[in-house]
From TrEMBL:
<dbReference type="InterPro" id="IPR005814">
    <property type="entry name" value="Aminotrans_3"/>
</dbReference>
<dbReference type="InterPro" id="IPR049704">
    <property type="entry name" value="Aminotrans_3_PPA_site"/>
</dbReference>
<keyword id="KW-0032">Aminotransferase</keyword>
<dbReference type="InterPro" id="IPR015422">
    <property type="entry name" value="PyrdxlP-dep_Trfase_small"/>
</dbReference>
<protein>
    <submittedName>
        <fullName>Beta-alanine--pyruvate transaminase</fullName>
    </submittedName>
</protein>
<dbReference type="GO" id="GO:0030170">
    <property type="term" value="F:pyridoxal phosphate binding"/>
</dbReference>
<keyword id="KW-0808">Transferase</keyword>
<dbReference type="InterPro" id="IPR015421">
    <property type="entry name" value="PyrdxlP-dep_Trfase_major"/>
</dbReference>
<keyword id="KW-0670">Pyruvate</keyword>
<dbReference type="GO" id="GO:0009102">
    <property type="term" value="P:biotin biosynthetic process"/>
</dbReference>
<keyword id="KW-0663">Pyridoxal phosphate</keyword>
<dbReference type="Pfam" id="PF00202">
    <property type="entry name" value="Aminotran_3"/>
</dbReference>
<dbReference type="GO" id="GO:0004015">
    <property type="term" value="F:adenosylmethionine-8-amino-7-oxononanoate transaminase activity"/>
</dbReference>
<comment type="similarity">
    <text>Belongs to the class-III pyridoxal-phosphate-dependent aminotransferase family.</text>
</comment>
<dbReference type="InterPro" id="IPR015424">
    <property type="entry name" value="PyrdxlP-dep_Trfase"/>
</dbReference>
């Protein structure tokens, strides 16, 4: 206990925190010291219901013993092996197991260490593919307003959140589709919104503007999480797929959040019935336990790149830790849990209860929208005049103080509990938000 107490009263100054208002946080820190199942445990011993699966990643819940055992075993069996020009069996086995979960023919797996790396890798695979087949003019990358694709220069180029872009230069030649968020037509939708499929036609507009032969790929999140849970309208992804096919443009789904069961299928492409050419994953791939990501590419893309003299590296890209043995061990143990407990489809079972519970918040102060899909939900609040984001932040702090963790982005509350969530946890999460909404002006 003493050691715990000491470690839990750290000097807050040296740590330059990511995506955090450092000074605000350090003035009133929220420190987590442990985790177990559906709960975090704070440094002062409070049990907090995890309403956000960490950062959308702890899909099987916290502290899973079999993952811990697999990691410990792997560290003393093979702690590291070079990833370039060498291999180790676990990486091949993990790629095979992942491929079995993917849509047919989308089964060539490139390992990374994060969602951001997965995004940049997918964009580079798209460029390399066009180049290998003699269409090297296709260099333009198309993203979408309000998209979040991590923080690499590729990711912020196709991303559409102004705060992540305004300070940094981006790659030349990118463009963006409009976002699909439309409260005037779609407020309080359950599941996919009715309106907005026609927004996919923006791609035709960009083709007319730039020329299809300059466009390599379009990247979208099938359900945009970090920007505040924007769900693809009915027919939108189908239309985007058709336009990409018409013009030889690759379609990339960023499934860093939706991958591994969040919507009730292993991947969102299966939920929506639309197949991309490439998709990115990370987060739930190891249940958040060890950093890892993976890009899934179609066989056509993989085969298209496997060209030229066989002694030459076909794709000049990779990371020291691509397919890290410890991450692969954690990932394999994670997939075993997902399979044994049916977690990759459990969101579909829980979704109706989740939906009802969330929509019970309608009518509470400042609530201007509630939306949900799978085990994801959002409550959008009216912003305080001149102080956007402060109201939802206050709700988050209030909930944390009363033992529920939620996430906020701007004035949107986002919720995405671990896929092991039970009805009682859902009741607790929703009650905490309801109470906070009544208290926060
Ligand atoms: C859709 C999407 N892409 C990429 C990323 C970046 O992942 P990471 O933070 O692991 O780099 C995220 C993170 O939330 C994400 O939601």
């Amino acid at each position: 206990m003493t050691a715990h107490t000491l470690r839990n009263a750290p000097n807050l100054d040296p740590y330059f925190m990511p995506f955090t208002a450092n000074r605000q946080f350090k003035a009133a820190p929220r420190l987590i010291a442990g985790a177990e199942g559906m709960h975090y445990i704070t440094v002062d011993g409070r049990r907090i219901v995890d309403g956000s699966a960490g950062l959308w990643c702890v899909n099987a819940g916290h502290g899973r013993q079999t993952i811990a055992d697999a990691v410990a075993r792997q560290l003393t069996t093979l702690d590291y092996a070079p990833s370039f020009q060498m291999g180790h069996p676990l990486a091949f086995e993990f790629a095979e197991r992942l491929a079995e979960l993917a849509p047919p023919e989308l089964d060539r797996v490139f390992f990374t260490n994060s969602g951001s790396e997965s995004v940049d890798t997918a964009l580079k695979i798209a460029l390399a593919y066009h180049r290998a087949r003699g269409e090297g003019t296709r260099t333009r990358l198309i993203g979408r307003e309000r998209g979040y694709h991590g923080v690499g220069f590729g990711g912020i180029t196709v991303g559409g959140i102004v705060g992540n872009r305004r300070v940094f230069p981006q790659l030349a030649g990118a463009d963006h589709l409009r976002h699909t968020h439309d409260l005037a037509r779609n407020a309080f939708t359950r599941g996919q919104p009715e309106h907005g499929a026609e927004l996919a036609d923006d791609l035709e507009r960009l083709v007319a503007l730039h020329g299809a032969e300059t466009i390599a790929a379009v990247i979208v999140e099938p359900m945009a999480g970090s920007t505040g849970v924007l769900i693809s309208p009915k027919g939108y992804l189908e239309r985007l797929r058709a336009i990409c096919d018409k013009h030889g443009i690759l379609l990339i789904f960023d499934e860093v959040i939706t991958g591994f069961g969040r919507l009730g299928t292993p991947f969102a492409s299966q939920f929506f019935g639309v197949k991309p050419d490439l998709f990115t994953t990370a987060k739930g791939i190891t249940n958040g336990s060890v950093p890892m990501g993976a890009v899934f590419a179609s066989r056509a893309i993989y085969d298209g790149i496997m060209k030229g003299p066989e002694n030459l590296i076909e794709f000049a890209h990779g990371y020291t830790y691509s397919g890290h043995p410890v991450a692969c061990a954690a990932g394999l143990a994670t997939l075993d849990i997902y399979a044994a407990e049916g977690l990759l489809t459990r969101a579909a079972e829980m979704a109706p209860y989740w939906e009802e519970a969330l929509h019970s918040l309608r009518g509470l102060p400042h609530v201007i929208d509630i939306r949900n899909i799978g085990l994801v939900g959002a409550v959008e609040l009216e912003s305080r005049p001149g102080a956007p984001g402060t109201r939802a932040y206050d709700v988050m702090v209030d909930c944390f103080g009363r033992d529920t963790l939620i996430r906020v982005t701007g004035d949107i509350i986002a919720m995405s509990p671990p896929l092991i969530v039970e009805r009682s946890h859902i009741d607790t999460i929703v009650a905490s938000v309801a109470d906070a909404l009544k208290r926060i002006a």
